Amino acid sequence: MKTAHFILVFCLLALASPFAYASDPSPLQDFCVAINDPKDAVFVNGKFCKDPKLAKAQDFYYSGLNIPRNTSNPVGSTVTPVNVAQIPGLNTLGISLVRIDYAPNGGLNPPHTHPRATEILVVVEGTLYVGFVTSNTDNRLITKVLYPGDVFVFPIGLIHFQFNVGKTNAVAFAALSSQNPGVITVANAVFGSNPPSNTDVLVKAFQLDKNVHTFRACTSIMMKRLQLFVAAFAILAFSSLLASASDPSPLQDFCVAVNDTKNGVFVNGKFCKDPKLANAEDFFYSGLNIPRNTSNPVGSTVTPVNVAQIPGLNTLGISLVRIDYAPYGGLNPPHTHPRATEILVVLEGTLYVGFVTSNTDNRLITKVLNPGDVFVFPVGLIHFQFNIGNTKAVAFAGLSSQNPGVITIANAVFGPNPPINPDVLTKAFQLDKNIVTYLQSKFWSDNN
Ligand SMILES: *[C@@H]1O[C@H](CO)[C@@H](O)[C@H](O)[C@H]1NC(C)=O
Ligand SMILES: *[C@@H]1O[C@H](CO)[C@@H](O)[C@H](O)[C@H]1NC(C)=O
Ligand SMILES: *[C@@H]1O[C@H](CO)[C@@H](O)[C@H](O)[C@H]1NC(C)=O
């Protein structure tokens, strides 16, 4: 009966889809925890969904992202993905996370694309030289040197790389705007495919002498060295490998937000800067390494990095936050992001976190998180994080919108201007009217 009820609700939601799709893409349900077996399940977005009543905190959870990975491999870097394959609860939610470890003196995350995702990366340790190449016919290389706390954006589908130019290990976390972003490592896809690409095709595409086709065998060695790397990169920049998928697309490389209409085009509520005038600063933010002051009534501070801080995020559907929590009870109070799913990784401390499913279940799903643990808060659902440790806590979180929005429940209900009629709140919360007027008289501060 429960399954039948779910299917009924699902059918109603499916019928409502033409209206729901008016704005951002929506999963049309709280979540769809991926399972392999169609028993008791509904088929959505390429995966079967688990019956929502059977979903548990474990479905939204991953641990171990605090562990440094072994970078002894030909390129000197290791990517640890946390997507729908690791967290089945990410299915349909349009976001994922990676940790990237880079060896000292030249660890390279080689030129690659994510066909279905924009990436927003924050450096935690080390010094990275990063860049991406715009599509044809410009093929402009936009680069930047990043230090801890720096944030950089790689627009969807564009070829990009990170290179450790420091003498120490480097570590970065990055959020990607798909639960299954895909990776195409350019050198491997071009020179290492199975079966191999026709040599004549490669000779013509890369305008190489046919004798140089042994180039293929040398690719992995070559990629270790900076000078040759730059040469290879310049060649690759001229190839057009950009995949466009069926996901919502910005329909251009990027649309750097500007305030004024001069030389601009109106897209998604913002004007775009002329792409030829875009530079690395448009995709960059610094300072996310700095602990924030949490001396406020809730004991937490959210530092957002969205389209307001990085104009290059406009239309790209992703953003990042740092959250600092005071020891002994720092709280990121119950709130929703109307336009984004959130994927959070704990760097320091111990957090008790949770979210509540929508009516009529209103089920609370909670988990205690330690460093390296990852948890997902599905789009639009009320959620919170609470520091239950005796030290401060720090987390980074990716959000699947360049402008996710925040609705802090207590502030929206008891603190709006002008206030909501107390009779409405008295009835809605079944409270004594004196309590409602007391709550309405309080000052509700934001932590973001
Ligand atoms: C890292 O991997 C290499 C090659 O697989 C191995 O020889 C080495 O012992 C590993 N190092 C650590 C610290 O595990
Ligand atoms: C847009 O205008 C606001 C307010 O005048 C200003 O603070 C902001 O820096 C401007 N943004 C850009 C990208 O020019
Ligand atoms: C943090 O903010 C509080 C209140 O605004 C202030 O009194 C305190 O000095 C600040 N602490 C630091 C370390 O800046």
From TrEMBL:
Top-level taxonomic group: Eukaryota
Coiled coil: none
Any one GO CC term of the record: apoplast
SMART domains, sorted: Cupin_1 (SM00835)
A Pfam family assignment: Cupin_1
Localization terms from the record: Secreted, Extracellular space, Apoplast
Residues binding Mn(2+), per UniProt: 335, 337, 342, 383
Annotated oxalate binding sites: 332, 337, 342
Signal sequence segment: 1-22
Principal location class: secreted
Sequence ranges assigned to domain Cupin type-1 in this UniProt record: 63-214, 286-437
Disulfide bridge map: 255-272
Annotated keywords: Apoplast, Disulfide bond, Glycoprotein, Manganese, Metal-binding, Secreted, Signal
GO molecular function annotation: manganese ion binding
Presence of keyword Disulfide bond: yes
Family named by the database record: Belongs to the germin family.
Identification of the protein by name: Cupin type-1 domain-containing protein
Organism of origin: Gossypium anomalum
